[in-house]
Amino acid sequence: MKVGIIGAAGRMGRTLIEAVQAFDGLVLGAAVDVPGSSLIGADAGELVGQGKLGVLLADDINKVINDADVFIDFTIPEATMVNIRACRAAGRRLVIGTTGLTDEQKAELHAAGADIAICFAANYSVGVTLCLKLLDTAARVLGDEVDIEVIEAHHRHKIDAPSGTALAMGEVVASALGRDLKDCAVYGREGRTGARDRKTIGFETIRAGDIVGEHTVMFAGEGERIEITHKASSRMNFARGAVRAAAWLAERERGVFDMQDVLGLRD
Ligand SMILES: NC(=O)C1=CN([C@@H]2O[C@H](COP(=O)(O)OP(=O)(O)OC[C@H]3O[C@@H](n4cnc5c(N)ncnc54)[C@H](O)[C@@H]3O)[C@@H](O)[C@H]2O)C=CC1
Ligand SMILES: O=C(O)C1=N[C@H](C(=O)O)C[C@H](O)C1
Predict the structure, then answer these.
(1) Domain Dihydrodipicolinate reductase C-terminal spans what residues (predicted)?
(2) pLDDT of residue 266
(3) What interface predicted TM-score (ipTM) does this complex get?
């Protein structure tokens, strides 16, 4: 199966080129990056030091839409929306890793799932997908007897906050507790805040250095504290998960899925 990578010159895009080539049954068919980039026309293989692959970076998915069976998008939300529309029009499967989409953009993504198969996950690592299951259990057991805080840390180049993974973790915990994250989330604290409201879920964000991606959800009670933590040390763990999702989508005609579906963890 041929895979097209959008955002191919980026941190994840370069890692994805390597991950696709290493996955049995998959081959790189197309690579796309932003119009005007000095890397347009470059060979994707040479971009990652693997020698020529004969796949040259294009600046528009529509120019290579017939060169791949499934596309993988790790770009920015505005680009992702263009790619969703292109894949929907051409009947191509799409794996989306981009975070920071608005509610309206997510609604359009889900509408596209009526026509094509999409996998959409804020974090493609197996470890985070497992953590989401653990968080659901922890929240149901601990209930409203604890204060819950989500702490995340990423590299200095990350442009969105909190991370999509942190928000996904918050959503799992809020849902397990019967809360609406939109109503109970507190993003950072400063000034005379008064005592903490137990019904809230706090989010704290660190941006520094070359941190790949670290998340901790703290359940702090009276006399004990439970912390569930995931630390990524390589982007290859995200890339392998995304490529695995691309292969998994091959058997699906339409619908919107996530990594719990890919890993068979859906209850
Ligand atoms: N779901 C997951 O497991 C993970 C998600 N991410 C997310 O992936 C996204 C990208 O992260 P990075 O690779 O670190 O960013 P990056 O900035 O290194 O790469 C983004 C790439 O997209 C390209 N791009 C921008 N506009 C474009 C357009 N219109 N058409 C084609 N390409 C375009 C940029 O030129 C760049 O090469 C972020 O939203 C990040 O949060 C990152 C890692 C894991
Ligand atoms: O921007 C990143 O690097 C990452 N972004 C994702 C997110 O926003 O959760 C996933 C991972 O943590 C790395």
Answers:
(1) 127-263
(2) 84
(3) 0.99
